[in-house]
Model the fold of this input.
Amino acid sequence: FCESLWQPLQTVAVALASYAEGYQKYEGPFSRVASSFFHSGRYLTNPEARGKQILDITNKSDIRFCKAFWSITEGDVIAEMCNLMAGSVAVNKLIQIQPHNFEMERSEGEGETATITPPCAHTGPAPVQIRLLCFVEREGQGWLNEAEETAQQNGKNSRGTKKPAKKPPSPMSKGLLIHIHGGGFVAHTSKSHEIYLRSWAKDLGVPIVSIDYSLAPEQPFPRAFEECFFAYAWAVKNAPYLGSTGEHICLAGDSSGGNLCTAVAMRAASYGIQVPDGIVTMYTPFVVHHSPSPSRLLCLFDPLLPFGVLMRCMSAYVGLKEEFMSEEGVTSVVDNLNDRVLGSPKRASIKTNEGTSVDGDREGKSPKEENANSTKVTTPTSLGGVANGDAVPVSDSIGSSFMEEVPPTDIEKLEQVSDAIDNATTGHSEMQSGVNGDQSQTGEESVAIFDPSHPPTSAEHPHSLPGGDEDSQDSKPEADRIPPPPYPADALPKSIKNRDDLHLDFSKSAEQGGADGVRTPTSFVNSPIRLFRDAPIMWNPYVSPLLSDEELLKGLPPVHIIACALDPLLDDSVSFAKKLRSIGRPVFLEVIDHLPHGFLNFSTVGKECKEASMVCVRHIMHVLYGFHDDEFETLGE
Done:
């Protein structure tokens, strides 16, 4: 990495290690941050301890730890510091789009329209929140301040203060940037990405709409995808209310946001509505799948996106659960299965769910003798006719060598394998708070409500939106219509909800085994890699654009891909660019040296990151205005 990033990356490492200290001990975010400050000195001066702590956290922590740590930037103190470094903008407003149908004209076919329906996956229709950023106030944006001005006037009537003179708004911009933020599909909002969006608003001179979508694992695919498409279609149709004529539209996103941008553009093309003039993606995962490519292998050492974090984010987005088991538990399951395959007569007893013994041979044994010769384990599936949840003790002939290595004090832990499997496989969704689930709610920010069936009245824009309350989908492509619940099996992620979803395939164990016909499984039962490989959701083109067929990709506009040479997702960008080029689609690939994943969030602390941010601006201006590389030097004039 470039030298200017050494200190910021070390700061992130110290913060990660110290934050982990308080994550398990405290519940509140304030307590965790305070504990992080308390322990930061030790990890700053002891690189050995810092490395061990980070390794342990990235290997063993769940996705909620990643969400909590990444959400630190949403806090008021850090957010305010970032805002001061990023500069000010004239318009920074949250807009809430109400969940109503509306019509959009098709690009081909005069008079034909497509019905855009609100997102409904998992939790049903709900509003979608976006953030509008603009360096100067422009025509068409006045409706955003009406409610706020009314409240201010009511509060100041008694004082009789004079309202300051307001500058007339600038003309509408011809361009509009629609942005989808990153965060591994599980964290961040538009607020934490203002650190570079504010400077983009000044450099580009166009309004920026950043979409706040619902986050995984509470809301896995396709919820975020549906919300982003709904917000994109709304912004294109209502560009005049955002300060733009909508003549030139660019869709841009970083990391997971780039994945959603590509999927949204493909959906817009399949609907036949206006597609953006171009897409600009930064360090994007174009395939949500376990891919042992060279760059992804490098993520074993990556300071910002290590392998464990990458896999957990992808699993959360598609709704897969982690099914790790302890080594002792797997060994017990193996011994039990070997017993079943061999048909050993020494399998003395089977306990029912109520804990009573079916065989009475052990009635005369003491508890010590009982524990010394067997341990209660639960098989992941019903094998050999034993129902799920039944506990099978391992006979002394099969499990003696294993039990000799296990201290008696650990037998009680082994008896809890059944509960561990239940806890790992039983998914319980947490209802989202507010509009976008885990996203930080800014209590001091006012939100402008936009109902597509009742748009704001404005003399500048006399056109009104159709009501469209009917739930009609006749205008959608047949292959792309959203069916009513229940959804088809291949439309939604298959989340593991019960014990039947954990399975060991021993149907061919006898034929493929060794001399004794016994075969031992791997050390993981249904590991994330196996789940990634087998889950049909992984082949959904809106999840992994790299796996899309040519017909769907041919509808994409020009794609600008910005990648990092030291990013685990570099090969995704190269492979996607090669695929687009092979089918004749215009694609631009630029690889930036010496920078890590997420360099945009470091644009205010490093010269190289700021220059890379300007590379993104250059590609966006290429999309909006058609500028070429040799014209950028004189663009300022």
Remarks:
- The chain has a mean pLDDT of 75.
